[in-house]
Amino acid sequence: MSYDDLFVVLHNVSSAGKCLDFVKIALSLGFKNVVISKATGGAATGGVPSAQKYVTQKNGNLFYLSGLEDVKEVLKIEELILVAPPGYGKEKVSNEMFETVKGKRVAIIFGGNDPGLSRRELEMGRSVQLNLREDPGTIGTVAILLYMLNSLTE
Hints:
Blueprint: E1 6-13, H1 16-28, E2 33-39, H2 41-57, E3 61-65, H3 68-74, E4 79-84, E5 91-92, H4 95-99, E6 106-111, H5 119-122, E7 126-129, H6 137-153
Parallel strand pairs: 1-2, 1-6, 2-3, 4-6, 4-7, 5-7
């Protein structure tokens, strides 16, 4: 999978610190296209500007959009992969899952607030979950899944 066609999305976030942690993890693993959608509160007023500054300094791309519909439309996404907490995704994350989306414009979407993405949001695309005993939270999930994906492409 080409990183040029892959967008890592943090959706529905209110924490400024979570925005910055999210972009740091994504960029440190080689993902250059990061998206923050539906930011509220501190995420909207402080988190997005801090994330923008960081991403710009690291020569990445930050897109700030109002919702998942805009993510799909504006970025011309062909496949939405929505990451749910353990027990809520319809399928487990696997190497084969990533093989099926090669060559497509893909957005991997993480919920920014607990408990994550809503049931309606999970139905907008392919809902997946990590094979874990407990939910490590948003940033833990982002780190684990992106590390897994990064190791597949090396």
